[in-house]
Amino acid sequence: MISTRPTRWSGLDTILLLVVLGCFAYLAHRVHSGLDYQWNWQVIPQYLLRYDPEAGWVPNLLLRGLLTTIRLSFWSLLLALPIGLVCGLLRTSLHLFNRLLGGTYVTLLRNLPPLVLVFIFYFFISDQLLPLLHLGERLNAAPGWLQTLLGRTIAGPDQIEPFLAAVMTLALFEGAYIGEIVRAGINGIESGQWEAARALGMRRWQLLRHVVLPQAFQRMIPPLAGQAISTIKDSAIVSVISIQELTFQGMELMAATYLTFEVWMTVTLLYFLLTYSCSWLAGRLEVRLRKAYN
Fold first, then answer.
1. HEC string of 162-210?
2. In whole angstroms, what is the distance from residue 256 CA to residue 254 CA?
3. Angle at 243 between CA 269 and CA 46, to 5 degrees
4. Backbone angles phi, psi at 280, to 5 degrees
5. What would the pLDDT profile of 178-232 be if each residue is shown by its tens digit?
6. DSSP 238
7. 103-142 core/surface letters (b: 16 or more CB in 10 A; e: else)
8. Residues 117 and 109: beta-carbon distance below 8 Å
9. Cβ neighbours of residue 281 under 8 Å, at least 6 residues apart?
10. Rounded to whole angstroms, how far apart are CA atoms 107 and 180?
11. CA distances from 85 to 22, 77, 186, 194, 216 (A)
12. Beta bridge pairs of residue 56
């Protein structure tokens, strides 16, 4: 929850700021004097945008990777939200079997290394499930406008199956964490709200739909925003399965140019701009919801 208390600058804040600035100044001095490295920032802009004689300025490697990261995170989060909602409802169900089912899913997903899960889910989904749908062949036979639309919103025909496998992998992984957020939000509603709704004769699904979930959703906004940011950062894991997102493009560019620091500092800045934008939007949404409910 965003604090509404007025901020006050104290002497301790000034001292801490000076300490932080001193650390940065020392780090910059060490990098400048002790690091045997030839900086070359002039070439970085050409890897963000390039000029095409027919299409004009178009995204190059790093921006294409950033756009793939945004698409990957968006579709993963969109799929993870209903998975998390179902998981949260199972975890708060009155039936023991439902609670055990939801609990087993969350326990398995949260207590295994994400990289191992990525390999298991990716190779199972891409080898066993997606080939049955023949998505690549169907997309190649689709009209040109549909190929262009899918290429801009999801992925091109050559990348559609790996991309969807990565989306499903991330969604299953993030869905377990969102399920716990939903469970905590539902359990956080005061018992008086439940009792009042039952006294009005509401069934459980009516109680959840009209009373509990609207209030729980407002409380879930900050952790859900954090989970959305976590999804963006976790999307870097799928670079190990050759999804051409930002981290993958950064590794490819670093291997080709040997501009280690310039490339990774640029990648870091792009990630920060993306995650900070999400954090800012979530803060604005939380303020709007608070005003609406008050």
1. HHHHHHHHHHHHHHHHHHHHHHHHHHCCCHHHHHHHHHCCCCHHHHHHH
2. 5
3. 45
4. -65, -45
5. 999 999 999 998 888 888 888 888 888 888 888 899 888 888 888 998 898 899 9
6. G
7. eebbeebeeeeeeebbeebbeebbeeebeeeebbeebeee
8. yes
9. 225
10. 10
11. 46, 12, 11, 19, 12
12. 52
Look at residue 143 and give its three-state secondary structure.
coil
Element spanning 58, H or E: strand 56-59
Residue count of the chain, please give it. Answer: 294
The per-residue DSSP string of 98-132 comes to: HHHHHHHHHHHHHTS-HHHHHHHHHHHIIIIIHHH
Contact 71, 243 (CB under 8 A): no
pTM: 0.83
Cα separation of 151 and 87, whole Å? 32
Determine if residue 59 is left, alpha or beta; phi over 0 gives left, psi from -120 to 50 gives alpha, anything else beta: beta
Model confidence pLDDT, tens digit, residues 13-47:
899 999 999 999 988 888 777 777 788 889 999 99
Encoded amino acid at 128, one letter: Q
The amino acid that residue 203 corresponds to is: R
Q: Which two tokens stand for residue 8?
A: 């006050």
Token digits of residue 279: 């954090």
Of 114, 105, 110, 65, nearest to 85 (Cα)? 105
In whole angstroms, what separates CA 102 from the centre of its chain?
22
Q: What would the two tokens of residue 97 be? A: 């079997």
Average pLDDT, the chain: 87
Q: What is the pLDDT of residues 241-294, one digit of tens each?
A: 888 889 999 999 999 998 888 999 999 999 999 999 988 888 888 788 777 766
Separation of alpha carbons 67 and 72, rounded Å: 8
